[in-house]
Amino acid sequence: MSQLSLKHLEKSFNEARIIKGIDLEVSHGEFVVFVGPSGCGKSTLLRMIAGLEDVTEGEIAIGGKVVNDLPPVQRGIAMVFQSYALYPHMTVYENIAFPLRVEKLPNAEVEKRVMAAAKVLQLEPRLQHRPGMLSGGQRQRVAIGRAIVRQPEIFLFDEPLSNLDAALRSEMRIELMELHKRLGSTMIYVTHDQVEAMTMADKIVVLDAGTISQIGSPLQLYHKPDNLFVAGFIGSPKMNFIAGTVSSADGTTIAVDMGKLGTITLPRSAKVGAGQAVTVGIRPEHLQLGEGDFTLSITPRIVEHLGIHTVIYSTLPGGENFIGLFEGDPKVSDEAPVTLGFARDQVHLFDGAGQAVY
Amino acid sequence: MSDVARTTEVASVDSPALVKPKRRARSTKAMIDRYKWYEVAALYLGIALFLFFVLAPFIEGFLVSLKPLAQLFSRPYSFIPKNGSFDAYVDMWTSVPMLGMYIFNSFFISTVVTLIVITIVVPAAYAFARFNFAGAGVLLGLFLAVNMFSGAVLLIPLFRLMRGLGLLNTYWAMIVPGAAFLIPSSIWLLRTYMMRIPKELDEAAWADGASRLYTLRRVILPLAMPGVVVVAIMTFIGAYAQQFIFALTFNSKTEFMPLPVGLFAFFGKQEVLWNELMAASFIGILPVMIVIVFLQRYLVAGLTAGAVKH
Prior knowledge:
The complex is a heterodimer of chains A (358) and B (310).
Chain A: E1 4-13, E2 16-26, E3 31-35, H1 42-50, E4 57-62, E5 65-66, H2 72-75, E6 77-80, H3 92-103, H4 107-120, H5 136-148, E7 154-158, H6 166-183, E8 186-191, H7 194-200, E9 203-208, E10 211-216, H8 218-223, H9 228-233, E11 240-249, E12 253-257, E13 263-267, E14 277-282, E15 287-289, E16 294-298, E17 302-305, E18 309-315, E19 321-327, E20 338-342, E21 348-350
Helix pairs in contact in A: 3-4, 3-5
Chain B: H1 2-14, H2 37-66, H3 87-95, H4 99-130, H5 136-148, H6 155-165, H7 172-195, H8 199-207, H9 212-250, H10 259-262, H11 274-295
Helix pairs in contact in B: 2-11, 3-11, 4-7, 4-9, 4-11, 5-7, 7-9, 8-9, 9-11
């Protein structure tokens, strides 16, 4: 049985529909990441699960019990806010102890639990300090500590790392994953950063304008995106898209005419009528220098040398941006034409409505 | 914290100055806070001018309180008292035996008004700052409208109201209207202050199971303390200033009179004891000064720093 289940969940603010019917099952111990561009409703969805926003329509069930009308504390959740939301006038100790003080637990129990949380989060030397004296990462840990002491069934994280600098962010990412392993509880995590989603999630929920675009494991989303939105959102740098039209389809292969680039024949069994507009997708990292199943020649505008990778940016004859990513430090320079190739089975194909064609 | 950051920053900015041994002392101030000597002089001159303008009546009042009565009407008038003394500060207690009572009444009325206002305004301001309820905007507008009437305009209806409630000639006759006129503006003031406290703090407390009242008591109130203190000071001063008109209209009992009315006792049939009047005024505002000095210790700014990252 799933621990959290959302059924046809909807949310409207006045006339504006923010969440347009979400169905989702989360099982115990899963690390689920809601990811999407800003304004896609991911934070609203999380706040609905937390009980900070009303449900307009549909049903939220935790542990088999409908919790639509229960306050957060009775849902067995704990939330970590993007802004940390620490109480500046209380010490770290009292901040972490706050939920226990609300519960009116005896002092000894409070101390036991706060010390345990502080140990896990390495906050022991900081317990008597005020939040204002802590660094960003430490504040974040205090916020997590406040969530841990309640021993909730489900942790909710609302973009917890977006206020940290890049180095600290990847550090905290590892800490959070270790925490998840240690506690084994369900975690739901909201982010707009697809790297965070890819690295942390057991299951990614890609949201787009209030609907679920695709649910799957990080590698599923990477290798088999259901639609153009997911294909473009997951992966960095972004997948290259080339507009084309179907010139023929015989049930085993589809030939796509890509204008000046030529025609590519892809192994697809779907029945697509000739003349239909389609989009061909190829990830920058699946390009290779030299010839492949399909070969094209481009002139890089910009070349980035990162040591481990080299990235080239160019424009296709059709006007689309085209990015290539190569291992190591190959000999490419800007304004000098290069020949690129890619394998046929690395290519993604999307129909006119943006849905993947297999 | 920012101070620490500033000094270290300044130190690095100043380090080239070490090469020039001529410079006497390295300024520890940031560039933006450094002034030439004549700029500093001009600043202080400006402050002195302004202070003189504001304080001139007090200075003259104080000088008058030091002079013997006869000297007040001497011509040519001398501002500096000759053989001045503090006699007036001693004599006033015998000229007007009830003076102590008047000062106490003033202090007592203002204190009670302040306590009532704070008790009502804190939860009200929290409600206006955080809850969405029908008519909130209209109510706030009405509060503002109330402020457009001074107590004086409403004296007659208030008198009837006080008589109807049987409050005439009691402390309440001065306390109730005093509090009523001060509450609306205080709600505005504190509501604005509370709106600056991040809403996430309420949400975090709510998610952790705290009730709204618990959140108000444990989270919002401590953070709104500087705002509450400002409201308390404003209310206390306001109550002190406005009690004259209410006391004059709604109270005829000498033992309940506050200082502003009590000062009339220095107006004798033959002469006015100006020097003692001034001395009594100064002693009368002393409680206000003490209260403000006491309260301003709680005006700690920047308490919300570190609550949320912006």
